[in-house]
Write a structure and sequence with these properties.
The complex is a heterodimer of chains A (157) and B (187).
Chain A lengths: L1 H25 L8 H13 L16 H15 L4 H12 L14 H27 L8 H12 L2
Helix pairs in contact in A: 2-3
Chain B lengths: L1 H23 L18 E4 L6 E3 L8 E6 L4 H15 L4 E6 L3 H10 L6 E5 L3 H5 L7 E5 L5 E6 L4 H29 L1
Parallel strand pairs in B: 3-4, 4-5
Antiparallel strand pairs in B: 1-2, 1-5, 3-6, 6-7
Classes of the chains: A mainly alpha (157), B alpha/beta (187).
Chain lengths: 157, 187
Amino acid sequence: MKRSMFLSLLGLPLWLAAGLAMALAIGQPIEFETEAQKRQYDTLVRELRCTVCQSETIHESNAELAADMRRRVYDMTLAGHDADAIVDFMVQRYGDYVRYRPPLQANTALLWASPFLLLLGGGLAWWRMIVGRKRMVQRPEFTQQERETLQRLRSGD
Amino acid sequence: MNLRLLFPLIAVSALLGLLFLGLGMNSRDLPSPLVGQPAPAFQLEALEDPNRMLTEQDFIGEVALVNVWATWCSTCRAEKPLLMELAAGGIPIHAFNYRDERDAALRYLNVSDNPYQTIAYDPRGDAGIDWGVYATPETYVLDAEGVIRYKRIGPLNRQLLLDEVLPLVEKLRDEQRRSEARRVAQS
């Protein structure tokens, strides 16, 4: 019992060290010449989608392809390509799908318009409801007899 | 009154219909922007010989397949008998050995069959990005001019070969023959 506890205590730092080593392996060679390059890299890796692990950016993803793409973004950034050129490069190879921010074009028009269409639909429904409620008949007033009955019930006779 | 009841029914059915259509779609079926583009340039060592450099020109010349594979990819292993059949049927197959180790890849090809005519060794996935590789296995069809005419993400299967790949190869070979005949006629 004591021994196993001792062993697990011994194991803990090992696990921590292993975790750190993994983190370093996943991390990348982040050395930039200028602040602008670093900013461009940081923005781009959060705007490009990893194509194998869908719904992750290449910044978050641990997939090897994402690491390749990060390296390519890094290399191209250092080589002086601007953000548009790098995004274009990726789009040419992987299609519009790699962009987390879809461009406004014919096949994405509905996507871009949908929030406004939904708003319009919701507004219309809301407006109809208001009008409908206004048109509803007023609740009838209590008659004198009903009022007396109520009064009697309330006072508990 | 009737209309007010009908409207939510229509709305819900429309939504369900849309969702049902969505079920039939495969989010892995991504369009490839490279189809119709010339084969991207690359420069890589040959798998068998580190001193021999290969470029995209080594893949171009006749209608051919380009297969992206690795030894760690079990789907690629499952796919290989089909590639063997294609190679035996006279369709040249070139390959990228993708993110693999040279020794492992060579050993694998030694103990099993090798359907590939040319194998470019791409341990870091450099050409992989240029060719828009998502995941192994992937197969491209190049025409004789080196233009990508088809891309399959994922393994080939017999049905796919019969329905899409082989007819396309036939068509491209026809195109090639015709353009060669034209060239001869012109000269």
